[in-house]
């Protein structure tokens, strides 16, 4: 009996091209979805980090008769190391960029179980000359004792020294994501008389930043101005950025303090 040999038929060029086109189409559909999901997850982690910092902030005040933790500027932070966080960042070789001890020595770390990861937003990819930077967050300059900077920049506004000083705690922010180009000390400050950013909020999370408020809630606020949405690229540390209009600036000013 004669066996009939069956010829195996390979793929034609057209069939291969069709498969490649389908794979490319699916990748084009799925990759943005996956990227968005990853960004959303990072935003949730960031919000949880800020929530943990805020709980530590509350814990410090509870153990110190309502006194809020110190919130110093660059010079006093470097001189006294008596701050909520003791590192100062730049784009060069500052020890504060990478030295975790500058976080551990801050007054909030004992209330964080010695954890240092909560100081960094997973969406913050900023890298200085000596390595990846370890902090992404700053504190409202009108919250806590600013030491030598008391009444220096916005004397017409109320400085909150105790946890009972807030007239409307749900409207005053405490912690926020800061843009890497202005992030240095942990003291987020702007001169509120005119709309020019000295410190700029970050825009990591769907064009917005996470903030905690004195009543304990955390929210993401989305920015609307092009000048607030500066790209997160390695640039100068500090500086002044003009605004297109004052919508974002006014919103943050209104949630920073109240007039005396």
What is the compact description of this entry?
With 260 residues, the chain is α+β, with helices and mostly antiparallel strands. The protein has four helices and nine strands, in the order H-H-H-E-E-E-E-E-E-E-E-E-H.
Rg over alpha carbons:
24 Å
Structural class computed from helices and strand pairing: alpha+beta
Q: Tell me about the largest β-sheet.
A: 5 strands, mixed
Strand fraction: 5-15%
SSE string, helix = H, strand = E? HHHEEEEEEEEEH
Overall outline = elongated
Q: Provide the residue-averaged pLDDT.
A: 88
Question: How much helical structure, as a percent, in the residues?
Answer: 25-40%
Number of strands: 9
Number of domain units: 1
Task: Describe this structure as you would to a colleague.
The protein is an alpha+beta fold and 260 residues long. The protein has one domain. The chain is 27% helix and 12% strand. The chain contains 4 helices and 9 strands; from the N terminus they run αααβββββββββα. The protein has helices at 13-63, 74-80, 101-104, 247-254; strands at 127-128, 131-132, 137-140, 173-177, 187-188, 196-197, 208-213, 218-222, 241-242. A hairpin with a 2-residue loop joins strand 1 and strand 2. The longest helix has 51 residues, at 13-63. The chain is elongated, with a radius of gyration of 24 Å. The termini are far apart. The model has no long low-confidence stretch (mean pLDDT 88).
